[in-house]
Amino acid sequence: MKLLEVRNLKKYFPIKQGFLVERVVGFVKAVDDVSFSVDRGKTIGIVGESGCGKTTIGKSIVRLLEVTDGEMLIDEEDTTFYFMKKRRAKQYLKAKYFDTSRFNNGDNSEFEPYEKKMYDVYNRANRDASKAIDYLFEKADQKKRLLRRKAQIVFQDPMSSLNPRMTVGQMLTEPLLFHELVKNLDEAIEKVKELLVQVGLKPYHVDRYPHQFSGGQRQRIAVARAISVNPDLIVLDEPTSALDVSVQAQIVNLFQKLQEQLNAGYVFISHNLSLVRFISQEVSVMYLGRIVEQGNSESIFKNPLHPYTKALLAAAPIPDPKKKRNRKDLVGGQVPSPINRPTGCFFNPRCKYRMDICTKEYPPMVRVDENHFVACHLYSTSQEQGGESK
Ligand code: SF4
C-alpha cells in the first residue's frame, strides 16, 4: 500500500492588480500537473533549480497551502477535500464521486481502493450525494487533526522555523499535548527529554532557547519536533543547506537512523544532487513547475535522459580536482518566468537538442525503462511506435 500518492497536483497563485478594485490578471503556475508516490520507509528526492516549485509541493503535502487541483491519497484514502473550504470540497466530491454515472451504475469491480471507500460511503447514505458528503464531514475536524499529525515538515532554516521566545521544552510539549499523545505536562516533559536524546541532544537542553544552540543542534530540535507526533511522512525541505558540510553529514545520518526506527516515508527536497542520490531510492527532476524526469535514483543518476537533468548533473561540483567536468551537457540562459512560460517544451529556449515540435507541443511523460520516465520529444517520438505513456 502506498503511503502517499500525489496525482496531477496543481498549485496556481493568482496575480492581482488594481488599487481600489483588485482583479486577477494571470497566474503563477508554481506546480502544474505533478504526480508521484512515496512508500513507507522509502525516500523520494525532488530536485531542481530555485523557483521550480519544490517547496510549494512540500507545503501542499503538509497542507500549509490549499491546492488548486489534483488529488492527494494517504494510505489509499482520498484526503484532498478535507483542507478545502467546505463549498469547494462539496463541489469536488460531487464532481468526482457522487454525481457521476460511474458510481450510479452499481458496478464497483473496476474501482481503485480509494474509490471503493467512497462508494461504501455513498451506499451508506442510500446513494444520496448530500447525505454522503455530510457523512464525510461529520468527523472532518478529527480527520484534519490526524492528517496534520501524519505529515510533518522540517524547513531549511532552523533559526526562522523555531520560535525564539520559547524554550525547547515549550516548543516540543505543545504538539504532544495538542494531539493528546500524553496525559499531562509532566509526561510531556519526560517524552521531550527522550526525543532530545533520540536526535543526539541532552535532556538538560529542554530549558534552553534556540539562540543557545549551534545551527546543527537547532536543526536537530526541528527534527525532534517533527518526529514528536509519530508521523508516517516527513517532508524535508532543503534541511541541510543552511548547515556546514561537516554538520550536514551528521544530520543526514540522523535522518537515515530515524527512518529505520520510524519506518516513515520521506520527501527529500534539495538542489544538492549528491545528497539526493545518497538518501533517495526514487527521484523526480522538476523544471518550471513540472516533473521532466522521474524514476529509480540509480537509473537517473547513471543514465540521465532529459537534457535538463544532464545539465544539472554536469553543473554539480566535482570533489576530485583531477576529474574533468562534462561541459557538453551544460546549458546557458536563464530559467524563463513562471508567469509567461514558453510554448511547447518549457526547456526549449535553452535546449541544444531542440526540434520543431519542441516549440509547439509539450512532450508527454513516457516510460523508457521499467522505472524510468522522461518528458522529452527525443524519447516520445521513438515511444510512439510501441512505448507507453505515464
Ligand atoms: Fe529539448 Fe525538445 Fe526535449 Fe524539450 S522536448 S528537452 S526542447 S529536445
- Whole-number radius of gyration? 23 Å
Strand order of the largest sheet: 6-7-8-3-9-10-12-11-13
Strand proportion:
15-25%
Count of separate DSSP helical elements: 15
DSSP strand count:
13
Helix residue percentage: 25-40%
Shape: globular
> What is CATH's topology name of the largest domain?
Rossmann fold
CATH class category label of the largest domain: Alpha Beta
Pick out the low-confidence regions: 384-389
Give the rounded overall mean pLDDT.
Answer: 90
Our measurement of the CA-to-CA distance between the termini, rounded to an integer number of angstroms, reads 20 Å
Bound molecules: iron/sulfur cluster
Q: Kindly name the structural category.
A: alpha/beta
Task: Provide the domain count.
Answer: 3
* Major beta-sheet overview: 9 strands, mixed
Oligomer: single chain
